[in-house]
Amino acid sequence: MPTVTTPETETGAVIDQRIDRVVPLTTPALLLHELPLGAPLTSAVLAGRRAVGRVLDHADDRLLVVVGPCSVHDPAAALDYARRLRVAADRHAEDLLVVMRVYFEKPRSTVGWKGLINDPALDGSGDVNRGLRTARALLLDVLRLGLPVGCEFLDPITPQYIADTVAWGAIGARTVESQVHRQLASGLSMPIGMKNRPDGSISTAVDAIRAAGVPHVFPGIDVSGTPAIMHTRGNADGHLVLRGGGGRPNYDAESVSGALDLLRKAGLPERVVVDASHANSGKDHRNQPKVAADVAAQLAAGQRGIVGIMLESFLLDGRQDLDPTRELTYGRSVTDACIGWDTTAEVLDHLASAVRTRRAALPTPA
C-alpha cells in the first residue's frame, strides 16, 4: 500500500531536523511581573540614563566609568563586588559617573561558556529560564544598592527581559556589523556604545552609530512574548567604543584623535569611550592600568573627546577555567582575566584626579 503523506508529516520531514528538544520560554511579561522594577528603581534607572546622556553630550564633565566582571558567573560574588563599587562610586561622585558592568551574555569565536543567561549552572545544561530569572534578580539587587548598570546586548530577544533595568548598553565587536543588532540598538531606551570590529576597523562602528540613529522596522517580540513588528525611532545616544584590534591598540592620543576625526566627518558627536581591556591591553589584564594611565594623561591634558572608559574588574585578579572536578575560586573571572579590586580602586583614584585636572584647565561651558 502506498504511504499516505499529510501536511503535518511533510512539515515534520523538513523542519527541526537538528533540534534535539524544545523547551517553552517564559514570557518577558511574566518575568517582569515576578521580579518587578517598581517605582523607586524605575526612577533610579531613568536618572542613570539621563546622567550617562549628559556625560555623552558634554553637559556633565565627569568621566563615565563602566567597570565590573567580564561576565557574571556567580551572582553572590557580583553583589559583593557591587557593594564595594558603591562605596568607591560615592567617593568619586563629583568626578566619575560609575556604572557597574553586569554582563550576562558571552560572545564566542568558537565554543565555550556563553554566559549566565544561557547556562546559569555552568555545566552545559542550558536552563535559560533560570538564567533569565537569575540575571534579572541580580540587576535589581545592584540597582537597590544605588548603582546604574551596563550590559552588552547579544541575543535580540533577551533585552525584553532585562533592558528596563539598564542605564548604558553596548553592541560588541563581533556584532557591530550586524544589521539585526543595529536595528535593535535603534530601539533600545538607553545610550548604546558601538565597539570597533575585532580587526580594528573603526569605520564599521561609526557606520553602526549612524545606522542605529535612524528609524527601523523589523520583526521581534513584544513584552508578552508575541511575535511583533517593531517600529523604532532611532537612538541619538550612540557613541564609539575603542577596544583595539588587528593586533594593535587604539587608546593612544593619536588613535583617539583619528577616531574623533572620523566621527566629525560622519556628522556625529565627537565622543569616545576607551575599553582598557581586549586588544587595547593585549589581552593581558595587567596592562589595563597602563591603558587607564594613558587615558588619564590625555584627560589631564584637556582631551574632552574621551567621555568614558571601560574596565574588566572583579574581586580577585586573573581568571580561572571551569573545571567540574574542582571548586571555583570565589571572586575570580571564568572568562576574560580581570584586574582585582585593590588595583581597581587605585585606577579609579587616578582617573578621578585626571578629571579634576581637566576641569581646572577647561571649565565646563555654561
Give an overview in words:
This protein is α/β, with parallel strands linked by helices. The chain is built from eleven helices and ten strands. It has an eight-stranded parallel β-barrel with strand order 1-2-3-4-5-8-9-10, surrounded by eight helices. Helix 6 (159-162) links the parallel strand 3 (149-152) and strand 4. Helix 7 packs across helix 8 (203-212). It starts with 6 loop residues before the first helix and ends in a 5-residue tail after the last helix. It catalyses: D-erythrose 4-phosphate + phosphoenolpyruvate + H2O = 7-phospho-2-dehydro-3-deoxy-D-arabino-heptonate + phosphate. Stereospecific condensation of phosphoenolpyruvate (PEP) and D-erythrose-4-phosphate (E4P) giving rise to 3-deoxy-D-arabino-heptulosonate-7-phosphate (DAHP). Its EC number is 2.5.1.54. This is Phospho-2-dehydro-3-deoxyheptonate aldolase.
Helix content: 25-40%
Strand tally is: 10
Oligomer: single chain
Q: Structurally, how many domains make up the residues?
A: 1
Overall 3D form: globular
Strand content: 5-15%
Summarize the biggest pleated sheet: 8 strands, parallel, barrel
What structural category characterises the helix and strand content? alpha/beta
Q: Write the CATH homologous superfamily.
A: Aldolase class I
- For the largest sheet, list the strands in their spatial order: 1-2-3-4-5-8-9-10
Count of helical stretches: 11
Q: Please give the radius of gyration in angstroms.
A: 21 Å
Under the CATH scheme, which class? Answer: Alpha Beta
